[in-house]
Amino acid sequence: MSSALGGSELGRLPLSVCMIVKDEAQNLPMALASVKDWVQEMVVVDTGSSDGTQAIASGFGARVLEIAWQQDFAQARNVALDAARSEWILCLDADEFLLSGAREVLAAALRRPGLAQTVSIGLFAGVPEVLEGRVQGQCVSQFASLRLFRRDPRIRYRGRVHEDVSESLLEIGADDWPDSGLFVVDHGYGEAQARELKRARNLQLLELAHAEQPDQLFVAYKLAITLPASRQAQRHEVLMKALAQARSMEPSVLRSQAFMPRLLAAAIQSCVQRGRLVEAVDISQPFVALLGPLVAFSTGRAAARAGLWDQAVLQLQDFLDRGLGQQGGLILLDLEASEAQACRWLAWSARMRGELESARAWLERAMASAPPAQRMGVGCEGVRLDLAQGRIERAAAYLDVLAPLAQDSSLARAELMLVSAEVSQAAGDVVGAMALARAAMAGLDADHELVDAAAALSAMLEVQRLGAQEEMAESRVRELFDAVKGQRFDTLAVKWLLSRRLGVALELSVPQATLQLLEAA
Predict the structure, then answer these.
(1) Across the strands, what pairs with 410?
(2) CA angle 351–396–494, rounded 5-degree value
């Protein structure tokens, strides 16, 4: 195949790598070095750099175009598409790079028919090392993205932020997007400061886009999940309006929205964070019929949190039976949806019902499939199962086995401290249990489910230790009440008991499982 650039004689692929950049002098060399030897051209659109980015790009042989930033990522990307001259286009960011085997993978991909293919984006915590063509580092998330497509004037980016080409492809009837097999390493979200800067930039653009297009579901979803915790009420309002709009859409249109499972998961989580467990289940029900197994994990977990065991088991088992924990492509499932997490929730549900042997079987399956980041949570559930069976010494011994898993993760350390508090409580060490429960809450977001569980345990222990000796100050009861969010039916029971002590009415529906705990208290 010949080309206008004459690159085929050099063994170069008929591919234009297109990038938009600003002040990327630190990251750009790694990105360009990973492709410069085997692509026909590199097109770099600069939106106002002042750190030498343009000179670096030119030094690598890239064609550099300079434009004014219009607060619109799609507009900038389309400038790059218009400038490209090769048969195929691959869009990269400056903080991304390809591995050494990428040329062969792409060579095969470019021989396929069709207009577009997906690539896998791996988000890494910091810049990973690459040894013998393999990346060594912590991949915190991986997802599919439409980054590889033919040069075609009909294929355009849309969206001020979180831009993509899927809408334009669908409009021309190109809805088959196979996996190219290409893996892109993204290290742009490794540092906390970089993440916060990008979050602030994206939030500004999303608020502008939402004001311009209030009926755009994707923009509403992205705005909601980008809003900070201090604006939780606004986040909830945006999500509820988006769900109401989604329910009025044609089922076929709704199922074409790849982000819908994650939008529903975010809305459910927003209800859960407010202690509205029944509402979380209620809003999910219409989407079980509309989206089926794609929301099975989210709806099953919501039912488990509310103590609705039959619904929970039905949905979580459906998720496992269909193998959706390995879901690929562009469908964005609940971020926590995996085989291990589904088995963990089934184990938790079985333990809460007193079905301890069933819980043990689910935990064994969970541990067998759990990636390293999830093993602490599964192991802690195993400790709780030992406690439920009265095996306190075995539970305490297993804490030492789990300890090495907590070295590199603040969440894992918090999980270990919380379950250690429960072991101390079972052993009769109330003071030690209180200290561990409070330590588990340190350093985590106040809305995290683990913090809610730790706050509920701490409140129970404090009432147990002081309640019989002296009347607890109302101000302290208020502090405990505010700390407990009630994100599961059992922690909601603790919040309800504290509300009774304060004489405060909770304006929410209470699950039957919570009422049963209150009757037994």
Answers:
(1) none
(2) 50
CA–CA separation, 127 and 185 (whole Å): 9
Q: How many CB atoms lie within 10 A of CB 177?
A: 20
Range with the lowest mean pLDDT among 29-38, 247-256, 303-312? 247-256
SS3 517: helix
Task: Give the separation between CA 296 and CA 303, rounded to whole angstroms.
Answer: 10
Question: Which band of pLDDT confidence, cut at 50, 70 and 90, is reported for residue 336?
Answer: confident
Quickly tell me which residue has 């399956």 as its tokens: 365
The distance between the two most distant Cα atoms of the chain, rounded to a whole number of Å, is 88
pLDDT at 7: 40
**Can you say whether the dihedral through the CA atoms of 160, 162, 163, 167 is positive or negative?**
negative
**Beta-carbon contacts of residue 468 (< 8 Å; ≥ 6 apart):** none
Give Cβ neighbours of residue 349 (< 8 Å, ≥ 6 apart).
304, 309, 312, 313
Helical H segments across 39-164, by residue range: 53-59, 73-83, 102-109
For residue 195, give the nearest of 299, 320, 95, 51 by alpha carbon: 95
φ, ψ of residue 386 in degrees (nearest 5): -60, -40
Compute the distance between CA of residue 416 and CA of residue 421 in angstroms, rounded to an integer: 9
Can you read off the two tokens belonging to residue 74? 């799609």
Question: Which residue has 């949806």 as its token pair?
Answer: 337
| Separation CA 96–CA 94 (nearest Å) | 6
Helix (H, G, I), strand (E, B) or coil at 353: coil
Distance of CA 471 to the CA centre of its chain: 43
Please identify which residue in the block is written with the tokens 């980054």.
Answer: 147
**What pLDDT was estimated at residue 515?**
94
The structure tokens listed for 221 are: 């979803």
Amino acid (one-letter) located at 443: G
The tokens of 267 are what? 């809305």
How far apart (Å, rounded) are the C-alpha atoms in residues 124 and 136?
10
Rounded to the nearest 10 degrees, the angle between the axes of helix 277-291 and helix 296-305 is 160
Question: Which of 124, 99, 112 has its CA nearest to residue 195?
Answer: 124
pLDDT of residue 303: 98
Which pLDDT tens digit goes with each residue over 32-58?
999 999 999 999 999 999 999 999 999
Between 225 and 189, name the one with better pLDDT: 225
268 to each of 273, 303, 453, how far by Cα in Å? 9, 10, 18
SS3 252: helix
Given a contact cutoff of 8 angstroms between Cβ atoms, the answer to whether 281 and 310 are in contact is: no
3-state secondary structure of 164: strand
Contact 261, 334 (CB under 8 A): yes
CA angle centred on 235, ends 230 and 241, rounded to 5° = 160
Residue 181, phi then psi, degrees to nearest 5:
90, -5
Other beta carbons less than 10 A from residue 421's beta carbon: 25
Alpha helix positions (H), 403-429: 410-426
Secondary structure tally for the chain: helices H, strands E: 23, 10
Q: What is the pLDDT of residue 2?
A: 35
